[in-house]
Amino acid sequence: MAVILKVRGTRDLLPPETELWNRVEATTRALFARYGFGEIRTPIFEDTQLFARGVGEETDIVSKEMYTFTPADDVGRSAGRVTGESAGLPSRDEKAQSLTLRPENTAGVVRAYIEHKLNDIGTLQKLFYIGPQFRRERPQRGRYRQFWQIGAEVLGPAWSGAESPLRDAEVLEMLATLLDELGVRGWQLDLNSIGSTTDRPRYLAALRAALAPIKHQLTPDNQRRAETNPLRVLDSKDPRDQALIEALPCIADFLDEDSRSHFDQVKAALTACGVPFRDNPRLVRGLDYYTRTTFEFTIPDGSGLGTQNALLGGGRYDGLSEMLGGPKAPGIGFAIGEDRLILALEAQAEQESPVERKLDAFIAPMGISQNSAALVLARELRAAGLSIEVGEGAFRLKRSFETADKLAHRMVIVGEDEVASDLFTVKHFSRGEQEKVTRVGLAEALRR
Ligand code: AMP
Q: C-alpha distances in angstroms, 10 versus 139, 312, 431?
């Protein structure tokens, strides 16, 4: 029968790789706690309108990458199996609601912020999430259709200080600390201000005016962007367009006094903290909700990510809450591409020293009559905090040896005599030694 394979652009994460995922998440959670963040978990699917309004109709994400469906499709498929109100079928209203697998998490967090009236609490809200996102992009190394993001948002009413440049600097300092703690080497922080909602229309008008006479010279993708989302032209990495892009007007020249001063204060605080950054006036982001500070952390070419070398991105989104029908609640946030972060860490580890992941010991029962005794011993040793695998009494000694050597640092032999005398043979593979150890001393001997 034909084998069923995973869907294009998705990945299975297997051990031992998942161990690294868990370590990264544990380190991140511990660090977020030190900065006062609490976890939020929002649904995997949301009303399509949330992304259309929040992320923006003209963005690549909303215009061509979303997984959108309507419950009416579900009803069609399940017809004949479940019927009627009691089976939980949607009402007429629900049927009409278009749903989308979340392509990013900021819109969902801000929706939850509004829905749960977190603004009324009056203090700054610091929320983080870890979870899968979905975008129908062209898959390649570091770019998937289901990928994981670790992100955080800092938002609150104006009087909570959410708008302060200190918040931007704190978030960036936290990210620099996180990447250092995780051991990511050679990261670079690119920083820009794309202006407030009043600066941006002036800049966009200038950009459109500058693009109009040269548009036909751009590559087709950028010709389209010049029409639909001109800011994205600046973001293009296509080498054929770089000379033309270089000559376009710069957002820095369109910032008003407030935006300029805000940006200067962010940079001054970062400098005071010793966080290195590069001013990059061409840095824009692919989502419409960003205002003022925008940033991206990349790692150098040759760090295992190929062209997908952006580890994380983010910025300020001062008008997003209002765009979603909520109160004024300025904020700043980021999303780390967890898949890319892990790929980078793996590539780094490979360059240094390949790590050998082995269990503390393999327990080898000599004969099936010793299986229970082996399991009891494994239970005791695991309770003492050791990592243990148990063999099978039907194995021949040679098979036990080979399996143990592959899986563990040591092998403990459990035979009739050993159980009767409570004295076990421990074989240390790396040292090529063997020793007899009493049951009470076993955990200690296996830990050494
Ligand atoms: P964005 O939400 O587009 O600002 O992206 C934030 C980060 O998520 C990027 O810097 C990437 O590290 C990661 N990312 C975005 N799209 C993908 C994808 N399709 N596959 C893997 N990681 C992604």
A: 9, 20, 42
| pLDDT exceeds 80 at position 84 | no
Which protein residues are within 6 Å of ligand 1, measured from CB? Answer: 104, 135, 137, 142-144, 147, 149, 285-286, 310-313, 335, 337, 339-340
pLDDT at 372 over 60: yes
The whole-number average pLDDT for the span 184-208 is: 92
Report the separation in Å between the CA atom of 73 and the middle of ligand 1, taken as the mean of its atom positions.
29
Whether pTM > 0.70 for this model: the answer is yes
User: What whole-number percentage of the chain has pLDDT above 90?
Assistant: 74
pLDDT at residue 322 greater than cutoff 60:
yes
Q: Tell me, which fold does domain 17-198+256-350 have in CATH?
A: BirA Bifunctional Protein; domain 2 (3.30.930)
Pick from 13, 143, 316 the residue to mutate for probing ligand 1's pocket: most ligand atoms within 8 Å of its CB.
Answer: 143
Choice from 175, 340, 341, 343 to test ligand 1 binding pocket (greatest atom count within 8 A of CB): 340
Mean pLDDT of 66-78: 71
Radius of gyration of the chain (CA): 28
In the CATH scheme, what is the code of domain 361-447? 3.40.50.800
Distance 303 CA to ligand 1 centre (A): 17
Q: Is the pLDDT of residue 153 over 80?
A: yes
At 91 the pLDDT is 59
Q: Average model confidence (pLDDT) for the chain?
A: 91
Instruction: Find out whether 191 and 271 touch, Cβ atoms under 8 Å.
Output: no
Pocket test for ligand 1, best of 67, 289, 298, 312 (most atoms within 8 A of CB): 312
Q: How far is the CA of 374 from the centre of ligand 1 (A)?
A: 48
Q: Which of 389, 396, 390 is nearest to 371 (CA)?
A: 390
- For the chain, the 3-state helix, strand and coil shares in percent, each to the nearest 5, are 45, 20, 35
Q: Whose CA is nearest to atom 12 of ligand 1?
A: 337
The reply to whether 361-447 shares the fold of 17-198+256-350 is no
The whole-angstrom separation of Cα 127 and Cα 431 is 49
Report whether 301 contacts 319 (CB < 8 A): no
Separation of 106 CA from ligand 1 center, angstroms? 13
Sketch the domain layout of the chain as residue ranges.
17-198+256-350, 361-447
